[in-house]
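Forwarding these from the shared drive since the link keeps breaking.
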Amino acid sequence: MEKIKVGITHGDINGVGYEVILKCFMDEEMLDLCIPVVYGSPKVATYHKKTLNNQTNFLVRNSVTDVQERCLNLINCFGEEELKVEFGTPSEDSGRAAFMALNQAVNDLAEGKIDVLVTAPLTNNTIKGKESIFPGHSAFLEKRVGEGNKSLAIFISQNLRVALATTNIPVSEVSKHITKELLTEKLTSLNNALKRDFYIDGPRIAVLALNPKGSENKEEEEIIAPTIKELFDNSGIRCFGPYPANDFFGSNTYTYFDAVLAMYHDQGIAPFNAISMGEGLIYTAGLPVVRTAPVHGTQYDIAGKGKADEASLRQAIFTAIDVFRNRARFDKAHANPLKRQYYEKRDDSDKLKLDQATESDTL
């Protein structure tokens, strides 16, 4: 099987991006899985390497067309430019360096020169354009290579996937963003990602309520519950709920599902972080391209100290490779399908089983 070219951006040069990249590829078995292509600065990489006393070797390339197997390739995005590293300090210079590497990587991704993209963490507000700050990796990719598709953030750990209905808005404004149209879009995108990207047949999705004791409130009764029923009955999307979030994770109800749709960031990500213990990753679903990232941020507090854990980056690389192969496998299996000889009869048996399991767990 041909090795997949994994583009990896260096992120904020004052954070832990280079540390986790260098630590990850200390294990030479990683080179058996893919062709890693780091977008960054050889000088900055060398500075981090010396500071951390890291022994990982890399080879500098001027273009992705020059990369080779069995080595860590580094694309020089800055020529002879000197970049100042100040561990633990976000700055406009470090933001500019992060964006330049990301921009070149996305250009190569759009042209098919790399197969997937893994992004080391950066700080959005250090990247300032003419009109506004950087909107985040997902929104940037959506605009650049989304082809009109909407992105969906999925947080993934070994036994849990959490997607978000809303992102980057104050909690006080969440309610007015919860609409039938939004939930239909997110649940359809999540269902498609589970089937094509993760190769799950007939995925089951739990939908969280917006409010405590969700069935007693307007949003659940008039928007969330009817949308779930309509998608289940008419579109074949096996979504269930809405489940009150207060005991959904603590009672292990999430283990009955392939994914969970939370209504807002902290509702889903706070329990996700507690369950994943920092070893999860972020996947940007819904786009033609594959992008993953470690779940942690820049970790300025430990930058340059050799304390960063590379496990999340490693999982992000594994997942990007798996998704790329799953998509090819799915598309091949569903290309020019034979005329169906039967039609699946859907009933409520799954729903009844899940409802009974949930009821027994919460008694």
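-- next protein --
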Amino acid sequence: MKTDVDVVVVGGGPVGSTALALLGQAGLTAIAFEKDAEMWPTARAVHFDGETMRTLQGLGIASEFERVTIPMKDVAIINEDDEILVHASTDAIGGQAWHDHISFHQPDVEKLIRSRLEHIPGVELRSGENVTRVENVDGGVVVTTQSSDGTTDSTRARWAIAADGARSSVRSSLGIESDKFGEDEQWLVVDGQLVDSPGCDADMVQFGRYSRPALWLRLPGSRVRMEFMLMPDDDLDEIVTPEAVERISRGVLPVGNFFPDRQAIYTFRGRIAREWRRENIFLAGDAAHQAPPLFGQGLCAGIRDVQNLVWKLATVLRGDAGDDLLDTYESERKPHATFWVKTASEQAVMIQTTSPEVAAGRDAFMKAHPEASAAPAAPALGPGLHAGDRDERAGTLGPQPFLSDGVRLDDMVGPHFLVATTREIFDGLSPAARSALEGDGDVVTLTDPAKVGQILKGLGVSAVVLRPDHYILGAADEVAELESLLGLIPSLAHQQAK
């Protein structure tokens, strides 16, 4: 099919904009359509992790993000009687070479991502154009749009990525249903400036108050967010007044010191779309999954989605793999996202209980087992393009060390496969394997101990292969094991098949 672009992205929020930037960086042509003419002026997401920063680092904008974000120093869980059940420090550089918990004001983040798009050839964000139809056709998709003046147009592409949010019109039009996790709850979300008032001591506080569960977050500058669970007898008009906000915050957001710029009632829900791919259309971000905000993984999960998908689209487009590679997007990402949705929903049940008896039991348990409240370790990907059937490290997120010269690993490797191994293992490879590695522009091979020593020592292996999305393809200790892993790299497998 003759196409106008390789990919159409539906939605220009942070997930859609990041997808557009990644597509352009990978050499694909793409257009993103965003129905709103202007960028959304208020915050929604406020947290991302070191893995997300690693993606932004790959786009060349991490240093700019550091200027508009703050690392989260500590978290706490407090009960009805204001007892501190848990207090933990989070102010450390993690295994991704960035802080593991970072707070931001979403408009600042979106502005930076959009500014990066202006410098990436082959991609375009069109605002004020509403996608009214996305249709699979033989060999691609046709996307119909309508501008604010009523003009309609169509764009033909090889694929479409629907990053159009929790109320995704694309998902609805495809008739894709979602599985529910936990109970839906209505919350009041309040963002604004807190001036000449201390707020809470910790950067993030979960208030396990059975009279009204709540959440506090300190954001860059004087910005803060609080979230309050709505109770059955709340007056929805009164609960958003300054006096009510001061009351339900127990004085944390006092009238005269807190200046809100957003007050909205949201329904916190856990959902996973049952299908993430319908032929040439892929769901990503909130269109594919929604989680209660207990671990701050909503935006992180959306960024993971497009990081996983884009390099696979590029691999298929250049002919190094067949279309079935794209099936691994859902098989890998869906179990990973489901883990976080399910875990956040279960945590919500514990923190959001309105039963004094249940809260008392929870408090006693958390005092005795504070480690149980820690965020769980991130899971591995589901089945897909990795050696997870024979290596438990495969499919897990790979490390990014600082190299001996202070450079972060990805700044040297770029968006490629990485083969990191000892010189002894590399020299033991067959001449054909060495030649293929040295001649493949999609693979970076490192054997210098100063560059690979930390990676190999940390994993306890002699060789490891990382994918472009930084997940481990597989690890090896013997030459034969590494040769087997090289056969999983699509570009090398394609060479061998010719």
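The mean pLDDT is 94. Residues 409-497 form a domain with the Glutaredoxin fold (CATH 3.40.30).

- D.
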